[in-house]
Amino acid sequence: MDNILANLQLLTSLAPTINIELIANGLLVGAIFALITYGMALVWGVMDIINVAQGAFVILGGYVSFYFVNAMFQIAPDTPRLLWIILSMPVAAVAVALFAHIVFKLVIERILDRDLFVALLATFGIELVMQQGMNQFFSAEERIIDAQLPTFAFMDYMVNIPGSRLLGASLGIVAAIFIVGLVRYSRFGRAIRATAQNVRAARIMGIDTNRVYAMTFALNGAICGIAGSIVAFVYVIHPFQGLVYTLRAFAIVILAGIGNVVGVIFAALGLGVYENYSGFILGPEFQDGMVFIIVPITLLVRAWIMRRKRQYLK
Amino acid sequence: MAQARTSQWIASLAFLAIAIAAPFVLPNNMSQLVDLMVFILIALSWDMLGGQMGYNSFGNILFFGIGMYLVASTQVWMGGYSLAEYNSAKGGNLESFVVTAPVYVTSLIIGLAAAAVLNYFVGLFVGSQLLQTRGHYFAVGTLGLGVAAGEFAGTMDVLGGGSGMNFLQPPEGVNLTMLLYWLGLGTVMLFIAFLIWLHRTRFGFVMNAIRDNEDKAEAMGLPTNKVKSVSWAVAAVFTAIAGGLYGAGKNFIDPTEVAFSLPTIGVWMLLMPLMGGKGTLWGPILGAVLFQLFKEFFWTYLFGWQRVALGLLIVIIVVFFPDGVMGGINALRERLFGKAKSAGESGEAA
Amino acid sequence: MSEPILEVRGVSKHFGGIYANQDISLDVPKGAIIGLIGPNGSGKSTLFGSITGYHPIDAGSIRYEGREIKHLRTAEIARLGLIRTFQQTHVYDEMDCVRNMLISRPLRGGDLRSLLHHPSAEDRERAEDLLEFVGLASKRHLLAGSLSFGQQKLLEFAMALMNEPDLLLLDEPTAGINPTLINGLIDRLRQANERFGVTLFVIEHNMRVMMNLAQEIHVLAGGRLIASGEPRDIQNDPRVIEAYLGGS
């Protein structure tokens, strides 16, 4: 309790510049959350499936990226690090998209028209298999790609922003613009949106909806792969961390609503800032718990608002 | 109707007879038998909402963990020790915290009772809030709550923090697994009798009505919100008792790996009704037995990969056997003897 | 006519920018059979929803037996004895007809303790009687979900009667019913009104049914009440003919 008060005092009177650091860092990681959430919302909106394995896909992308960068480094030690980090993004994207496609063919395709709970539980099972499998293959050790970027200090070293976060956020934004553009303007994207709006009408118009589902799920895999390769040099990679990313994305979708890209961006940035603040004020051991608890809390707030209209969240 | 009731009671007696014989037949597997009783309790509890009412909770682990911590703490407290001192002594001289056999047994039972009462109200409160949401939203909301509880329990130093807490060592003269088994079996029988009775009351009808068509139930003036919260509260009671028994048997509580462990027990408790057949009385029990067999097999022969195998088991059951064993039996019976005529009237909780 | 059991005054309800109900006022006298007609999308079902608390209304007042009910929730309104049925049937699919009936027994106080009993012998008898009354006696042990649409409509009607309502709002009771059975159903509705003393407020597309049944008819078009009166007058009212043929 005392240290919480001390931390609050630090923020309000002693060192208000820390606020700038917390907000900036929060916004930067929020960009990564937005990317992951966009993929989840895409699958949710188009296929009516909540992918609990979303976070495990992200972690898998991180491992692909980690091993790719390390291998390249061993082969060509004199090349610039940044080059391989950036190149690892498409590599991870392709790898996780392929993996997602296998998952789609083996499992998702068979449960498309089943109960919503079935999808939830099946993807939870996939999450468990992936998490334990990665634990077996890659060990439970934390992995990180050292980007060897400096930490930028502002205002007399009161505000410190790691260069890796700046790089991660910018790469995330570039990737997000590319993906949103793909869904907005390509033929494939039009098919996705038509299917999301009305499956039957889409079929009548000659769209192969099953193929759209497969492509959507693979695209989501690619998004997770890119996000994972960013996470690998901004944060750390650990086999059991997937669920945190899944629940973050879920909370953001509840806040923003499905299919609301602008809402997702703002909610993701907000969540990033919220996490940084709760971690700073309560202590780092609270950070994951505060992420998890935001899910039922946002649900309840939405439910209260809807109850005034005598509706409910369904 | 009367016939169906008689067969329920006969099945219960048969189950009781087997369960009484089990410790004598399998004296070397007592801890597995204790686990089985725990599994039956959490499977039947989960099915009250998931099977009978159509609300699929990922968060029942909340009550399991609270029950576990509460029983452990009650025992320490009734043994005359300070909880904070006890937990800060962890890793060192826990041997100095001793209790007599009568104190150990009574404090265990009182702890279980306290866990039951407290969790009734926790379930009532959480239910009155979260059960306002339906479908996907309810499932993932409860998931968030369950894992958050583990994280927060890990921050509380008085409960041993992130490294968890030990149960008191059972003193000489207490055969712990025997004690836990009979306590577990007694609770299971109580729960079965309660469920047989409940499913024939109008309360039980309303639970099914909520599953089939909640809007209609509301349009007909049924108190759906109250029925939902009370049902979850009752499920919380039995889940909490199960948590206390399980923790005492394992003798150690880790906040995220044992007490609030969503990836293990938290998922097993919904996998078991699914394996056996949800929405029935004997399905979850059968599922618990089957699951215990699978689990022992995986742990014995696939060490290291057992959790991967368990995840695969979930996926396979959900994708290929969604109606469970009871569903398979019913389908087989229909194929052999034609469609059951009175599926609703006599087949409830069959 | 007798005093009103339901008084609707100036009720408005809009979804987005579209008014589904606009300034609607009407009375339902106690013991009467009142009709509500109008082209598709004229706001009939919305009005039923407004009355039974499915959505909050934007303006106006709804009094049931002299008591304001616009702020009450659906279940609370139902417990006062005001029950509605649905255009798309709502039954409990996974249960048989008898159980559907037994669940529908009224629960006026909303007290949980009254739920902790087995259904009484009288309840069972009444359930069987009402199933017989609507002509579903032979189906009583079939799952409600396996019945045809028309049979589900009849079951829903029987369930509503089981709830012993004082005022019953029926949303298209004859839709999906085999045409040869419609005359029988009209008789049942009339009997429910006379024998059980239930006031009926009925949405119906079948004008022949309406002419036969209702003592007074209200006509909605474009969310507004455009005419009220006895069936004969309504049939010849130029505004009503315009609404139906003019395609409002």
Protein architecture, described:
The complex is a heterotrimer of chains A (314), B (350) and C (248). With 314 residues, chain A is an all-alpha fold. Chain A has twelve helices and two strands; from the N terminus they run αααααββααααααα. Chain A has helices spanning 2-14, 17-47, 54-75, 81-111, 116-138, 163-185, 187-197, 199-204, 209-234, 242-256, 261-282, 287-308; strands spanning 151-154, 159-162. In chain A, strand 1 (151-154) and strand 2 (159-162) form a beta hairpin. Chain B has one domain (31-349). Chain B is 73% helix and 1% strand. Chain B is built from 14 helices and two strands. In chain B, strands 1-2 form a two-stranded antiparallel sheet. In chain B, helix 1 runs antiparallel to helix 7 (176-198), helix 2 (30-50) packs parallel to helix 7 and helix 12 runs antiparallel to helix 13 (306-320). Chain C has 248 residues and is an alpha/beta fold. At the A-B interface, helix 4, helix 5, helix 10 and helix 12 of A face helix 6, helix 11 and helix 13 of B.
The main pleated sheet of chain B reads as: 2 strands, antiparallel
**Biggest interface, and residues per chain?**
A-B, 47 and 43 residues
The CATH class of chain A is Mainly Alpha
The helix content of chain A, as a percent range, equals over 70%
Count every helix of chain A, treating DSSP H or I runs of 4 or more residues as helices.
Answer: 12
Question: How many E strands of chain B?
Answer: 2
Ranges of chain B with pLDDT <50 over ≥5 residues? Answer: 340-350
Radius of gyration of chain B: 20 Å
Q: State the assembly state of the protein chains.
A: heterotrimer
CATH architecture of chain A: Orthogonal Bundle
Mean pLDDT of chain A: 89
SS content category of chain A = mainly alpha
Instruction: Summarize the biggest pleated sheet of chain A.
Output: 2 strands, antiparallel
Largest sheet strand order of chain B: 1-2
Number of separate strands of chain A: 2
